[in-house]
Write a structure and sequence with these properties.
By secondary structure, the protein is an alpha/beta fold. It has a single domain, classed as Rossmann fold. Helix content is 34%, strand content 26%. It contains seven helices and seven strands, in the order ααββααββαβααββ. It has helices at residues 3-17, 23-30, 65-70, 72-77, 114-124, 144-160, 170-176, and strands at residues 35-40, 55-61, 82-86, 99-105, 125-136, 180-188, 198-205. A seven-stranded mixed β-sheet has the order 3-2-1-4-5-7-6, sandwiched between helices. The longest helix is centred in the last third of the chain and has 17 residues, at 144-160. The chain is globular, with a radius of gyration of 16 Å. Pfam families: Methyltransf_11.
Length: 207
């Protein structure tokens, strides 16, 4: 990782992901979490204030040292114990069936192998464990014009945000990884350009 990826991108992501418009979505995606939770792409901890009281502990997987430092205040203020427990969502350092639930928010876009990461999440979830997710990705099939713009903008998006993709098919990735989607809401974030803001929010069940 170079200077830009290590020192600049985490600060940009911290600012963008801390926008007030994201707060209701974070609250929604965290609803229903309980027990031991693994969060991939923890970032700078913007989900921490929305962990339900039923969550007993969170294992945070975050590759960026700066991102983790930016999260310090939120982690200290949390009523839920949070520990940094991994660096790579594609290779989780946990035994099979270790967690009751998993959380991923705007993370699958930047993981180099999103399918491998989802398979790892499924592996470390207990049978019947749930993955709570909100991810931006490929626009709905009927919005081909938006998809065309996503394909045009993706090379620039990847350069600016350290590998962030705009065209990953979130539902397809989940089912290919072996999850059963139990709930999904596909929408565009208000106030954002559609090619950058095609979101999928929901829950998926581990077999």
């Amino acid at each position: 990782m170079g200077f830009y990826a290590e020192r600049v991108v985490p600060r940009i992501v911290n600012a963008v992901c801390g926008l007030k418009t994201a707060q209701p979505l974070r609250r929604r995606v965290c609803e229903g979490l309980s027990g031991e939770v693994v969060e991939i792409g923890f970032g700078s901890g913007h989900n921490v204030p929305y962990y339900p009281s039923a969550v007993t502990a969170v294992a945070a997987v975050e590759p960026s040292d700066l991102g983790w430092r930016l999260a310090e205040g939120r982690v200290r203020a949390s009523t839920v114990p949070v520990r940094r427990a991994g660096l790579d969502g594609q290779s989780l350092p946990f035994e099979d069936g270790s967690f009751d639930a998993a959380l991923s928010t705007w993370t699958l876009c930047t993981i180099p192998d999103a399918l491998a990461a989802l398979r790892e999440v499924r592996r470390v979830l207990k049978p019947g464990g749930t993955l709570h997710f909100i991810e931006h990705g490929l626009a709905p099939e009927e919005d081909e014009n938006v998809r065309r713009w996503q394909r045009r903008l993706e090379p620039m998006e990847k350069r600016l945000f350290d590998g962030c993709h705009l065209t990953r098919p979130i539902a397809e990735l989940l089912t290919t990884a072996g999850f059963t989607i139990t709930e999904i809401d596909v929408f565009y974030e208000k106030g954002a350009p559609k090619p950058l803001a095609a979101d999928s929010l929901g829950t998926a069940l581990s077999p």
